[in-house]
Amino acid sequence: MVSSAFSGEQQVELLAVMNTKVMEENLAVYWQQQPITLYEMPYPIERLDPEQIAAQLA
Q: Which pLDDT does position 16 carry in this prediction?
C-alpha cells in the first residue's frame, strides 16, 4: 500500500507499507528508476513472531 502527497517544496512524499528487510539490510529502493530516500520511522517498529501470535490465539 502506498499513499502520496506533495511536500511544501513540491516534491512527492510517499508513505509505503513494505518489508522491514529493506531497512535492516539497507537495500536501495527505486521508483521509476529514481532513487528513493528512506527516513527513520518516528516510532519504534514492533516485530511480531507469527508463530507466537498463533500460539496465543489457540
A: 78
Residue 21 has pLDDT above 80, yes or no: no
**Residues 31 and 38: beta-carbon distance below 8 Å:** no
Region for residue 26 given its phi and psi (left: phi exceeds 0; alpha: psi -120 to 50; beta: otherwise): left
**Could you give the angle at the alpha carbon of 13 between the alpha carbons of 2 and 42, nearest 5°?**
85
How far lies 44's CA from each of 8, 10, 41, in Å? 26, 28, 7
Looking at this protein, which amino acid is placed at residue 28?
Answer: A
- Pairing between β-strand 30-31 and β-strand 12-16 as defined by DSSP bridges: unpaired
